[in-house]
């Protein structure tokens, strides 16, 4: 007879699986929907520690040196990482400044610091009282730590500025590139199940080990501890609020999607930035920015910006609406494919932030008075709101509802 702690449920479809030992670098996938359940990473804690320490060092160095410089004639304009945030504040866009600061600076730092806080004591067979809570929040911050999207915005900015002036990469740019690589490596090396298991070993909370598996189980959405229904209000291991399904998932997601769809209209009508050269202003909307890239024969970047700024938001709204409608009509058509569709939508949604980062970088660099200046426009605020709201919509959507209509009676 297996204990509850020998089992876990899939976070995508709620299928129940027995937890088995995996070979080194092995991965367990859900037999029903194909999503990853857990993996076995060789020397996981050591790898995460090394990559996180390296990331912390690179993070500090990236703030000590110039990030980008722009040279036009004898004049050189230089910026640092925080310049985008400061210039957005200076131009009267505090909401964009806060968003750029959080997603490109603060959240990446908190992820790095949180991983070190969790992993370093475990290396020495210890942990803090707040380890559960910290690791739970680190996981929540992963989707909001957008160093990769920021660096893509930097690439687009450099290419756009090449016709205007000479762009000189600073040491900070290379430190940020290294930071991106080490953060990705740290996350790839993370064995979440190992961390929860190691912490639980040294905690008084053992979950619900002595009860046999039976109907009426619920699973923690953060640490995946399986418990019996109505036994706890909060997970006894990590403190996450327990519920069979996300509260009011459908109504919340519909409300967020409807709001995002409304905001997407002014986001495309109003200019996201205005480029002024020799006293003549040229407002740019999202679409006109793509057109300018095409006119400059920068086909690759034009396609990238079109995909991230136009296709992704529109497709995300349409896909999420389709999934909600299919659930409300109790559709049982291809639930595995619909789950995969949501998974892809969830992953690519944050890449729409590329335009917001691009604007922050450009306005902090192009400050050449009468020669050339760039100012953010109101469309950028609307577009940023669309991106953030659709990210919240994806978070509020419960993909397990797709499968609830497809359960057989014995399930």
Query: What is the total tally of β strands?
Result: 12
Approximate helicity band: 40-55%
What's the total helix number? Answer: 14
Provide the CATH architecture of the largest domain: Up-down Bundle
Count of spatially separate domains: 3
Tell the overall outline.
globular
| Top-tier CATH class of the largest domain | Mainly Alpha
**Order of adjacent strands in the largest pleated sheet:** 6-5-7
Structural features, described:
With 411 residues, the protein is mainly alpha-helical. It folds into 3 domains: 1-40 and 204-244, no CATH class; 44-190, no CATH class; 245-411, Butyryl-CoA Dehydrogenase, subunit A, domain 3. The protein is 54% helix and 12% strand. The strands form 5 sheets. Strands 6-5-7 form a 3-stranded antiparallel β-sheet. The protein has a 3-stranded antiparallel β-sheet with strand order 11-10-12. The radius of gyration is 24 Å and the shape is globular. It starts with 6 loop residues before the first strand and ends in a 7-residue tail after the last helix.
Topology:
Blueprint: E1 7-9, E2 16-18, E3 27-29, E4 36-39, H1 44-62, E5 68-72, E6 75-79, H2 83-90, H3 94-123, H4 131-141, H5 147-161, E7 166-169, H6 171-188, H7 192-201, E8 217-219, E9 226-228, H8 249-269, E10 273-277, E11 280-284, H9 286-295, H10 299-328, H11 335-348, H12 354-365, E12 372-376, H13 378-396, H14 400-404
Antiparallel strand pairs: 1-2, 3-4, 5-6, 5-7, 8-9, 10-11, 10-12
Helix pairs in contact: 1-3, 1-6, 2-3, 2-12, 3-4, 5-12, 8-10, 8-13, 9-10, 10-11, 10-13
């Amino acid at each position: 007879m297996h204990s509850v702690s020998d089992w876990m449920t899939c976070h995508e479809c709620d299928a129940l699986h027995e937890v088995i030992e995996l070979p080194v670098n092995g991965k367990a996938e859900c037999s029903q929907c194909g999503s990853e359940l857990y993996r076995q990473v060789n020397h996981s804690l050591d790898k995460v520690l090394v990559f996180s320490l390296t990331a912390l060092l690179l993070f500090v160095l990236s703030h000590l040196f110039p990030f980008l410089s722009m040279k036009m004639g004898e004049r050189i304009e230089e910026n640092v990482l925080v310049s985008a945030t400061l210039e957005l504040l200076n131009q009267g866009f505090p909401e964009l400044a806060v968003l750029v600061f959080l997603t490109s600076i603060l959240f990446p730092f908190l992820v790095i610091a949180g991983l070190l806080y969790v992993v370093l004591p475990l290396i020495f067979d210890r942990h803090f009282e707040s380890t559960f809570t910290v690791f739970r929040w680190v996981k929540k911050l992963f989707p909001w730590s957008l160093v990769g999207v920021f660096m893509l915005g930097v690439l687009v900015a450099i290419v756009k500025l090449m016709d205007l002036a000479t762009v000189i990469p600073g040491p900070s740019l290379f430190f940020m590139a290294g930071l991106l690589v080490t953060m990705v490596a740290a996350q790839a090396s993370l064995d979440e199940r190992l961390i929860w298991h190691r912490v639980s070993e040294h905690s008084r909370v053992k979950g619900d080990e002595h009860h046999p598996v039976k109907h009426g189980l619920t699973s923690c959405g953060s640490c995946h501890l399986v418990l019996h229904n109505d036994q706890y209000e909060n997970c006894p291991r990590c403190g996450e609020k327990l519920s069979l399904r996300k509260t009011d998932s459908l109504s919340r997601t519909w409300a967020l999607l409807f709001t995002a769809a409304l905001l997407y209209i002014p986001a495309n009508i109003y200019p996201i930035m205005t480029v002024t050269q020799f006293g003549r202003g040229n407002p740019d909307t999202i679409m006109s920015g793509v057109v300018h890239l095409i006119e400059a024969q920068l086909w690759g970047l034009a396609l990238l910006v079109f995909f991230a700024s136009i296709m992704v938001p529109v497709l995300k709204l349409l896909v999420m609406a389709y999934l909600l409608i299919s659930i409300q009509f109790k559709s049982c058509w291809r639930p595995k494919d619909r789950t995969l569709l949501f998974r892809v939508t969830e992953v690519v949604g944050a890449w729409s932030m590329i335009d917001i980062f691009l604007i922050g970088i450009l306005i902090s660099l192009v400050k050449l008075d009468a020669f050339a200046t760039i100012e953010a426009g109101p469309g950028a605020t609307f577009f940023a709101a669309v991106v953030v709201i659709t990210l919240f919509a994806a978070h509020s959507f419960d993909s397990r509802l797709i499968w609830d209509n497809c359960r057989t009676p014995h399930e």
